[in-house]
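Methods — Computational structure assignment.
A single polypeptide chain was analysed. Its primary sequence is given first, followed by the predicted tertiary structure written as structure tokens.
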Amino acid sequence: MNEEAGIYARESSYLDRHVQFGAAQGRVLSVSFPESPDDEAVDDHALLDRIEEYLTGAEDDFADVTVALTVPTDRRAVLEAVREIPYGEQVSVDQLVRMTPDGDPDDEEDVRTARSALADNPAPLLIPDHRVRDGPSAAPAAVEQRLRSLEGL
């Protein structure tokens, strides 16, 4: 990813909305799915090309894309575990908690932390919360369902 800071967006006919992300210093700061992009958004970026290919059926886990996670450590651990869920596979929230270092699915606080991390995910799609079948997603419900459908979930 290039080092240039900015807001990038491109319309997706598959999602029926735009995919938009903010980046700085070679890191993605956020991903969103607005109906209309920010006025200053640019539509030319290699990551947008990859996302467009993914949305037309190309398998991509985006593992090489650096996401700047400015979240508490316990939530960061959950989101890092989400990035380990392979394309086309899904887990439950309990399984995700087990995948998270020191996570205990019998500990209500650990489950609550996982659910909060998913709901507040700053980069849905790159951190594929749509692969957690019974958890919240930071993406709009229609986008989450399209992403799940795309991956056969």
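Note: The longest strand covers residues 17-24.
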